[in-house]
Write a structure and sequence with these properties.
Blueprint lengths: L1 H24 L28 H11 L48 E13 L5 E8 L6 H9 L2 E3 L1 E3 L2 E3 L1 E13 L3 E9 L15 H7 L20 E4 L6 E14 L5 E9 L4 H9 L7 E3 L2 E3 L1 E23 L6
Antiparallel strand pairs: 1-2, 1-6, 3-8, 4-5, 6-13, 7-13, 9-10, 9-13, 11-12
Length: 331
């Protein structure tokens, strides 16, 4: 009995093995496609990895990055012998557009006036006190230049001294003039609007006395003279005759003026003037003028204009004071 059971078990095992062997030799069935509307299967979860340290990331990126290109050498600039310069912009910031330009009154009002003006001169004084050379460093009345030079050359001057000895030096002086100006007779006056295409002119330079004096940078001491800074006592004028005391003759001047909406002159920039002493006089006179302002679409507007005047003028001047300076003011 036991033998039969054991034989049966062995037969069963052999049959199972043969069946498995036959299945292995058969081709695998094709997979069944999922239905058209079946949802896509979710991707398998990604295993989390530990974060890479920042230094390691930078090092890895640097290892993978291509090497930098070689540096480009700096270009050498060679100064060309000549360069074509293009024209500057023609647009003038002072220019404006209007329908009717500003206009001067029928008669320009002037009054008599008295003003002070500084006249700076340098005089080369020899050991005897004689003025052997005169230089007008800043002359407010060039119309009287010849007479001013003759007057200064007639001065009596105490010479400069160093260590008790008279020496030759250049003395520097400021002459205070009092000028009485009579009302000028203007024979011609024009007012021309400044357009956007009007070239900008160079202004007439006449800064205040202190500013001008501060800007002076004298050169080396002339040969044969002692520096004014090295003397013990400066040359001092003692007798100062002055014959350049009056003038009557022509004058002319040009300004750029800004006329506001009320017809008043708000700013006046001098461009040309025969004698700088007239600058404060005309500036004061312009402040009282009433002009017709420019108009745009029936409304008054501000405008820049060029004012040109000429005629005859007369004045008297008096030498009020002479101040000796302890510094050279010449070139």
């Amino acid at each position: 009995m036991r033998f039969v059971v054991r034989a049966f078990s062995i037969a069963v095992l052999l049959g199972a093995a043969a069946s498995r062997s036959l299945r292995a030799q058969e081709p695998a069935p094709a997979p069944t496609p999922p239905p058209a509307n079946a949802p896509a299967e979710a991707p398998p979860p990604v295993a989390e990895t530990a974060p890479v340290p920042a230094d390691a990331s930078v090092a890895a990126a640097a290892a993978l990055a291509p090497p930098p290109p070689p540096p480009i050498p700096a270009a050498r600039i060679h100064d060309a012998p000549s360069i074509a310069i293009s024209k500057l912009p023609t647009e003038n910031p002072y220019g404006s557009v209007f329908d009717t330009p500003a206009a001067l009154p029928a008669k320009l009002p002037f009054t008599d006036a008295v003003l002070s003006s500084g006249f700076f001169v340098s005089v080369r004084v020899d050991p005897t006190g004689k003025a052997i050379s005169v230089r007008r460093d800043r002359d407010p009345i060039p119309s009287l230049a010849a007479e001013s030079m003759r007057s200064i050359q007639r001065w009596t001057i105490t010479p400069a001294r160093r260590s008790g000895q008279a020496v030759e030096t250049w003395g520097a002086y400021r002459l205070e003039l009092s000028v009485e100006i009579d009302s000028p007779k203007v024979t011609q006056a024009t007012l021309t609007p400044v357009a956007p295409t009007t070239p900008i002119p160079a202004p007439f330079s006449w800064p205040p006395d202190a500013q001008w004096l501060e800007s002076r940078k004298p050169g080396p001491t002339p040969e044969g003279t002692v520096s004014l800074l090295e003397v013990d006592t400066a040359p001092v004028p003692t007798k100062t005759p002055w014959s350049a005391d009056s003038f009557k003759g022509p004058f002319s001047g040009r300004w750029w003026i800004k006329v506001d909406k009320n017809g008043r002159i708000e700013r006046a920039i001098p461009l040309e003037i025969t004698d700088p002493v007239f600058l404060p006089y005309f500036r004061r006179a312009m402040s009282s003028w009433a002009l017709r302002p420019a108009q745009l679409k029936g409304a008054p507007v501000e405008s820049w204009n060029e004012l040109a005047m000429s005629g005859t003028i007369s004045f008297d001047d008096e030498l009020k004071q002479i101040s000796a300076l302890r510094r050279a003011i010449g070139p």
